Every structure is written in structure tokens, then in C-alpha cells.
Amino acid sequence: MDKVLLGAFEKLQKREHLLRVTRDQMGLGRITKEEFKEREAKILERYSLTDAEQRTYDSHLRMTRKLRG
């Protein structure tokens, strides 16, 4: 696995973890819906994939889908 793909996976994992934590906080009433939307936007912006990472990730998905079926 090359460095670009590994970086993409790490960003996606961090993003999903932080979004899950933020959703849980809203669900428990610790933050408001407005605060949730602000945090969500910051998380998505901070952990967005670069063009190279997105291309590499899409290519990886296509290859793994071909291998599966």
C-alpha cells in the first residue's frame, strides 16, 4: 500500500471517528444542533482528501470491488 493511500485511509478514519464522537455528544444533549453543524463542517474541511488521495482511494475501491466479484 503506498503512502498516498495510507494517508487517505488515516484521514478517513480520523474523520469518521470525530464525526461519531460529535454525533454522540449531540445525541446526549451535550452540544446544540448549531454547534454540531459547526464542528461537523470543521471536521469535514480539516480531513478532506486531496485530489491525489481521492484518485488513489477511488482506484483502490475499484480494484477491490473487481477482486470480490
Tell me the layout of helices and strands.
Layout (H helix, E strand, L loop, with lengths): L2 H25 L5 H14 L4 H18 L1
Helix pairs in contact: 1-2, 1-3
The proportion of strand residues reads: under 5%
* Contiguous uncertain segments of 5+ residues: none
Helical region count? Answer: 3
Mean pLDDT: 96
- The helix/strand series, from N terminus to C terminus, equals HHH
Which structural class best describes the helix and strand composition? mainly alpha
Give the tally of β-strands: 0
What would you say this structure looks like, in words?
This protein has helices spanning 3-27, 33-46, 51-68. The protein is mostly helical and 69 residues long. It has one domain (3-68). The longest helix has 25 residues, at 3-27. It is elongated, with a radius of gyration of 15 Å. The protein starts with a helix and ends with a helix.
